[in-house]
Amino acid sequence: MRTPLRNAGALAILFWRADRRLTLWLALLTVVLGLAPNATAVASGAFVGSVPGAVGHGPASPAGRQALTWLALVSLGFLAGGVGLAGSRLLCELMNTRLTQALAATVGRAALGTGDLTRLADPTVTADLAAVEEFERSDLHLQTAWSVRMLLTMRTAGLCAAGILATFAWWAPVVLVAGWSVTNVASHRWMRRGFTAVREDSGGALRRADYLRGLLVDAPAAKEIRVFGLAGWLGEEYTRTWRAAMEVVWRARRTNAWSLVAGTAALLACHGVVLAALVQRTGRGELGAGALTVYGLSVIGVGELGFLGPPQWRVARATALARQALDLSERLGPPPAAPSCGPPPAARPAVTVVPRGPASGPAPVEVRLTDVSFRYPGRPAPVVRRLDLRIPPGQSVAVVGANGAGKTTLTKLVCGLYPPSGGSVRLDGADPRASRTDGPTHGAPGRVAVVFQDFLRYELSLRDNVGLGSLPLLHDERALGEALRDAGGTSLLTDLPAGWDTILARGYDGGVDLSGGQWQKVALARALVAVRGGAGLLILDEPTANLDVRAETELFDRFLALTRDTTTILVTHRLASVRHVDRIVVLSDGKVAEDGDPDTLLAAGGRYARMFRLQAERFADHTDPADHADHADQPGAPTGGADA
Ligand SMILES: Nc1ncnc2c1ncn2[C@@H]1O[C@H](COP(=O)(O)OP(=O)(O)OP(=O)(O)O)[C@@H](O)[C@H]1O
To answer: Residues of the signal sequence (predicted)?
Structure first.
């Protein structure tokens, strides 16, 4: 019993958070609509009781007028019920919109509120987030307010009917409620087994089935699936997985069907006892036609106390989800902590901070990692081991190393996306995970701009895709245009049908998808906008994989020139592309293997020099590795890794 009550409490909190006034109005309407049918039943009984007198003495007689008054009250009761229903439908629609927003805000803020990604990697959190998201995507949540209102109205009406029936015999409502309770418990048990099976036994399989179905219908997956001829296999795999998941639910329900039968039999028996008593006392002349009508309607009315149907199931699901959503927000910590790198989330409030323009230039950030170790949650071995690195403000550093050396992990730690397992990461002396939610800098642009390998491709306009680097510059077309130009994407603006307003995704009116290289330019432009907006540290983590090495070199050089006053970290495995950085850091096995300026490292003949020569010598018929190092990406070619 505690769990349903806790869940109901969670939904009540969500209602309250969503809109207090609307909640109060709905509560009032719920009570009125619950009382109305009982008042109508009493008026009906009185009308039936007054009919013989009215027939005997005529409609103009006092008895006739009394009958007509009762009839008018019955009609009024029906009318009030109808109007109340229409009104509550309207309020419920409004409430659902507010609830959707409250739920999204609760879960969204909770997810964003995590200063780092550690807890988001927790499988239980992922499962809860997926469940809430699935609920939001389903039609169910659009019926939540209506279902809650309906269920509470039913229960109010049932309670009122029980009170009326108690005036016939105190035990009558008790017997009926007992009958309904047995049925209720039996049905609840049957339902719960189904839900438990979904959540605990087949939740993973259902998510997998959902993922497989997504692969079948999602546009981005369509290319590979068609080329590899996977559609048939995927279709079968989806059906098999879904059936296997549902079989668990069906089995749970089949094996518990006996409880439904027993519950129904108990309910029939209890009704039989009360109806028999009513008939008996009517037969003895103790009850008139009016009283029989009222009590008969009350017997039916008490059913509202225990009736199980779609509203109850929907409310059960909504309350459970509300609990999950609140649990999530409690577990994930206090919202909202602004992420410390990358473009700020679109939902962040408008900023009041005056952005630093390019004229003054953003103050470059000092990066300092002291004795940093890091292990991914659930992974036994550390990926970064006791690493020390100081990057003075304004320096440009290339981080190089073999696949899996820990380059991306290092950038994530610098961004504060994960807390180090040991040691400390400081940007200008501050923890990059520190929240910026208080004080006048609330919503200020991040001090770190980053473009990851798997940067975000927002299904939004070109303007948003570029401008989200710094919200204050979102509508500054000049700044956005310059950033796009500097990222080499000016032609995009002229080629796209609606210019800045073109949605960068198919499936929207006039929407256009971009090529991989074009997307990279957009992402780079976004980072440049962030730098204009005040980011003093720019990290490019191989976002240039789609470019050949010459284009990558040109781009890096252009970026280094553009961001001369910004601390810059470039991650790449093509050493020729980063010849013009101030400093090279070679990572190997999560540690700094070599550190120095490119010329010194090359002259020293160590690991970096070997890597550089290997990449160059592989194409010995050419003299400049920059001309050819892109071929190093070919199968079998050295990756430029420290162990190459
Ligand atoms: N989210 C994660 N969870 C668990 N392990 C991870 C995660 N991300 C990376 N790793 C592991 O950490 C190690 C370092 O990965 P990282 O991506 O930092 O290497 P990298 O040097 O950037 O490699 P590449 O050049 O291939 O991009 C790898 O062994 C990888 O499998």
So the answer is: none
Q: How far is CA 98 from CA 92, 102, 105, 293, 598, in A?
A: 10, 6, 10, 42, 58
- Asked which of 41-50, 52-61, 343-352 is least confident by mean pLDDT, the reply is 343-352
Do 196 and 154 fall into the same domain? no
The set of residues, in sequence order, having a beta carbon less than 8 Å from that of 56 and lying 6+ positions away, is 63
Structure tokens given for 485: 């130009």
Mutate to test the pocket of ligand 1, among 383, 414, 541 (most ligand atoms within 8 A of CB): 383
Measure the CA–CA gap between 219 and 216, rounded to whole angstroms.
Answer: 8
As to burial, measured by CB atoms within 10 angstroms (0-12 exposed, 13-18 middle, 19+ buried), residue 468 is buried
**pLDDT above 90 (res 24):** yes
Ligand 1 atom 26, closest CA: 403
Same domain, 107 and 224: no
Domain region containing 65: 1-168+316-337
From ligand 1's centre to the CA of 611, what distance in Å?
A: 20
**164 and 175 in a common domain:** no
The SS3 assignment for 375 reads coil
- pLDDT score recorded for residue 121: 66
The alpha carbon of 185 is separated from its chain's Cα centroid by a whole number of angstroms, namely: 33
Q: Which residues line ligand 1 (CB under 6 A)?
A: 376, 379, 383, 401, 403-409, 573
Domain count, the chain: 3
